[in-house]
Write a structure and sequence with these properties.
mainly alpha; Farnesyl Diphosphate Synthase; 2 domains; globular
Length: about 325
């Protein structure tokens, strides 16, 4: 995760139950990535040991408490979604040529691209073995989620066609790469918590929306003072040439004749390897209206996620899910 998000649970009993669940998931994650082969074992543990906020299993646990959060299948489902997420990170870092992940060197810099990709595949395989124990429906859901993750990465790599709106294309990529797995996390929690079909559907919708809001908030954090507070290295996405909502909005504004936006685009398309040049570009983006527009877009998705929860009866779990969506936006300020 790229910013601090405290466990959004006001109810002490619920908070304790979720923390206990996360502790169990953490232990099982470490067990799940063990290999007899030394290279596979070391490389598979690399990102698990780097840490993370475990947002996806946390949402699985919270969603389960809309029903019975103490069923053993819930913890198992939490392990599946986090293993799947970790596997995707190995692949993402190769695709994006990232230098770091969670403060540690990216796996491909330590072992090379081929090993990093294969380790990601190993983790997907482990997740598949674990989800098979949860039954055929869970396997089908996991497979569909994996498909969307791959399509999202493919579409991000290829980019929008000449006929596509780049912002709409980007939001679809976020839905596939981030929203899909967060939706599955909520879906599994509600399913294995014994909730009814309506509640499961609500959690799917909520997860899709809050997942996109989360990534849009990350786009802002990468360029704002919130990034400095959280400890994130500013401008990472800019330097790596990764499209984000603020830069896409700047390009749109430039195409519509905004002279200042055009100046920013020229900077974006220049050499950002120099720290001073990168800082100048970040400052120019922060002074332009595209940053507030990006914040507003993140807030819009988060508020839609909150709205998706409305049909649920009031409970501590519902309140925590609402507060999580609010916290996603609050961290950009």
């Amino acid at each position: 995760m790229t910013a601090s998000l405290d466990l959004p649970v006001a109810d002490a009993a619920l908070a304790e139950s979720v923390r206990a669940g996360l502790d169990t998931i953490e232990a099982r994650l470490r067990e799940a990535v063990k290999h007899a082969d030394q290279l596979a074992d070391t490389a598979s543990r690399h990102l698990v040991e780097a840490g993370g906020k475990r947002v996806r299993p946390m949402l699985t646990l919270l969603a389960a408490h809309l029903g019975d959060g103490h069923r053993p299948e819930v913890v198992q489902a939490g392990v599946v979604v986090e293993l799947t997420h970790l596997a995707s990170l190995y692949h993402d870092d190769v695709m994006d040529s990232a230098d770091q992940r969670r403060g540690a060197a990216a796996a491909h810099l330590v072992w090379g691209n081929q090993i990093a990709i294969l380790v990601g595949d190993l983790l997907f395989a482990r997740a598949s073995r674990i989800v098979a124990e949860l039954g055929p429906e869970a396997v089908d859901i996991q497979a569909a989620t994996f498909e969307r993750l791959c399509l999202g990465q493919m579409h991000e790599t290829v980019g929008p066609s000449a006929q596509e709106d780049p912002v709409a294309h980007y939001l679809q990529v976020l839905g596939d790469k981030t929203g899909s797995l967060i939706a599955t996390a909520g879906r599994f929690g509600a399913m294995f918590g014994g909730c009814d079909a309506e509640t499961v559907d609500i959690m799917i919708r909520y997860g899709e929306l809050v997942g996109v809001a989360f990534q849009l908030a990350d786009d802002v954090i990468d360029l704002s003072s919130a990034g400095r507070v959280s400890g994130k290295v500013q401008g990472t996405d800019l330097r790596e040439g990764v499209p984000t909502l603020p830069t896409l909005l700047a390009r749109r504004a430039a195409a519509e004749g905004d002279a200042e936006a055009q100046r920013i685009v020229d900077m974006l398309d220049g050499d950002l390897s120099d720290d001073a040049r990168l800082a100048e570009t970040i400052e120019a983006l922060n002074e332009h209206k595209v940053m507030s527009a990006a914040r507003d877009e993140s807030a819009r998705w988060a508020h839609e996620a909150i709205g998706a929860l409305e049909p649920l009866p009031e409970s501590s779990a519902k309140l925590a899910l609402r507060q999580f969506a609010e916290a996603v936006v609050d961290r950009t300020r």
